[in-house]
Design a protein that fits this description.
The chain has 572 residues and is mainly α.
Length: 572
């Protein structure tokens, strides 16, 4: 156990080497949890056609919102708009009115709990202005017969600076961010044309400079919302462009790819969070494809479309992951409890099984309370930008726990070790002269596994479809029921050591995946840096092409190997 703790601390330390933690002043912040939680409940009630329950939840929101409004300083225009949206939702609770309420409520929360980006904005202006002026000068010289290769070189330098500093713009003004990205892409298109399209480069350079100047001056731009714009819509635009290229209709193809570039800022998050390499390729290659339209470009476009279609923007975990968590945790508790019941039967004390069952029942209730708290709190905790960061942080904690669980399983994966474990705990329980020992062991076995299960599920819940989540739990419960019946009815011992050995490596594999997904989530929220490398993404295994993520996973594998060697030596 000391070895496990040391290795776990080392893993956490290694992760922290890459950390880029930022702090925000929480003074005088308004707590919106009491509003987001019933809003989530109301949305669930509407899906179940329970308008009365939805209305009751909206009444709770109204009460909490009025409490905030008691401070007249909080009664802004957004406050009034949120009240209006709330009244409309109360009058007609449906998906549309609740969606509008959630948008207004989230905007009001951002207004009341602002993040101070002033320092970062000043730093952005300081970093971007020199390279922006260099690019402007290079394009102006191009209009006077300058060198296109110099323009491309200066553009690459500008793009590198932009990528390193763009997050502050994306977080504070998506309208500016989208216009900047579009102008940059069109400059690239103009530069890649043969001959170079100087007019396109000049016009978009003017737009780029004006937009960045507007952002640096603190101007506000209104982002144009379009409900039909999503990843599927973007892929369809690329498909239409591909078809046009194949039909030698370059004008239509360029128009479709140009439209894709304009909406890219609105949909890039679905790609960036799942395949950083593909994200970088799209930003780099689509403008070139649009400009050239030759056979290699068309082939490249087809490849990008195929990889984009493989992305599922709604889930990164499957029912198998959900099943493995409950199966591993539930099976451990079930085996311990069934072993206790069997031992009591052998000892001729069947009447004392009630103490074991009481411990199981109490442990289940305690675990359900924890699960209920998770469901109630999770919508508020994951609202807005905190979602990915929470998933990443909880996921890493879960991985460390999984390493401990795996080490424990491995150390019990021999007949001798398992029998010694059961005899030790039974001896302690029966030697007390009281069944309180059995009650306590049963309770702790169930509650500990239940609490761990809740934490593990917290790490994957934001990124798994509810149908997959429920299916995994149902399958795991079915397997556990079969195991319980076999043990209870036949008194035939399952090959527990072999079973534990298999589960050990299953839990290690799941930990590897969750670690990769968690590191990626923390990178995408700015808590860890990310250096993309040229390796394929394998979302099913939690492998993403970044130096930091792959390095941490390599350390994880090394720690697992050390734990396996330690467990094997301990069994000798």
């Amino acid at each position: 156990m000391k070895l496990y703790k040391s290795l776990s601390i080392f893993l956490l330390f290694f992760i922290c080497l890459f950390a880029n933690v930022s702090y925000a002043d929480d003074n005088a912040k308004v707590n919106f949890t009491p509003l987001f939680t019933p809003l989530s409940d109301a949305m669930g009630a509407v899906k179940q056609n329970n308008a009365k329950q939805a209305t009751d939840d909206l009444v709770i929101i109204e009460k909490e919102l009025n409490n905030i409004g008691k401070d007249t300083n909080r009664q802004s225009t957004l406050y009034q708009e949120t009240l209006t949206a709330l009244n409309q939702a109360k009058a007609n609770p449906n998906n549309d009115t609740l969606k509008e309420l959630s948008i207004k409520l989230y905007a009001y929360e951002k207004e009341q709990n602002p993040v101070d980006y002033s320092v970062k904005r000043r730093q952005f202006a300081k970093n971007i202005t020199p390279v922006l002026n260099q690019l402007d000068t290079a394009i102006q010289e191009m209009g006077k017969g300058g060198d296109i290769e110099k323009v491309k070189s200066v553009y690459q330098n500008f793009n590198k600076t932009w990528v390193a500093n763009e997050r502050v713009v994306r977080n504070t003004s998506m309208a500016h961010y989208g216009k900047i990205e579009t102008a940059m892409a069109m400059i690239r298109v103009g530069a890649e044309n043969n001959p170079p399209n100087v007019a396109m480069m000049t016009d978009n350079m003017a737009m780029l400079k004006a937009t960045i100047d507007s952002y640096n001056q603190g101007d506000e731009l209104t982002e144009v919302k379009n409900d039909k714009v999503d990843l599927a819509y973007g892929v369809e635009l690329l498909k239409q462009g591909l078809t046009a290229f194949k039909n030698n209709d370059k004008a239509v193809a360029q128009a479709k790819l140009g439209e894709f570039i304009q909406i890219w800022a609105s949909i890039e998050g679905d790609v960036r969070t799942r395949d950083a390499k593909l994200y970088a390729e799209i930003e780099s290659d689509v403008p070139v494809i649009m400009a050239k339209g030759d056979k290699p470009s068309v082939d490249k476009l087809a490849n990008l479309i195929e990889r984009l279609q493989a992305i599922n923007p709604h889930a990164r975990y499957s029912w198998v992951d959900s099943m493995l968590i409950l199966l591993r945790e539930g099976l451990e508790a079930l085996l311990i409890v069934m072993a206790l019941l069997t031992a009591l039967t052998v000892a001729g004390q069947p009447k004392d099984k009630k103490w074991v069952m009481a411990g199981v029942g109490t442990g289940l209730v305690a675990s359900l309370v924890g699960a209920w708290a998770l469901v109630r709190l999770f919508p508020a905790l994951t609202s807005g930008a905190n979602r990915e960061a929470l998933e990443g942080a909880v996921g890493i904690v879960a991985v460390v726990m999984m390493m401990g669980v795996g080490a424990w399983l491995h150390s019990k994966s021999s007949v001798k070790a398992w029998n010694a474990y059961i005899n030790k705990h039974m001896g302690v329980a029966l030697s007390t002269g009281s069944m309180a020992g059995l009650f306590g062991l049963a309770f702790l076995s169930v509650f500990r596994e239940g609490a761990e299960t809740v934490l593990f599920y917290a790490g994957i819940l934001p990124s798994i479809a509810m149908s997959e989540f429920v299916l995994g739990i149902a399958v795991a419960l079915g397997v556990l029921a079969v195991v319980a019946v076999v043990m209870a009815k036949t008194s035939v011992k399952l090959p527990i050591p072999l079973l534990f050995k298999v589960l050990t490596w299953l839990i290690y594999a799941l930990g590897f995946k969750i670690l990769g997904v968690s590191i990626s989530a923390l990178q995408l929220t700015g808590h860890l840096p990310r250096d993309v490398v040229d390796v394929p993404s394998v979302a099913f295994l939690g492998i993403y092409p970044s130096v930091q993520g792959l390095a941490v996973q390599a350390v994880y594998v090394a720690v697992v190997v050390i734990l396996a060697v330690w467990a094997r030596q301990k069994m000798v």
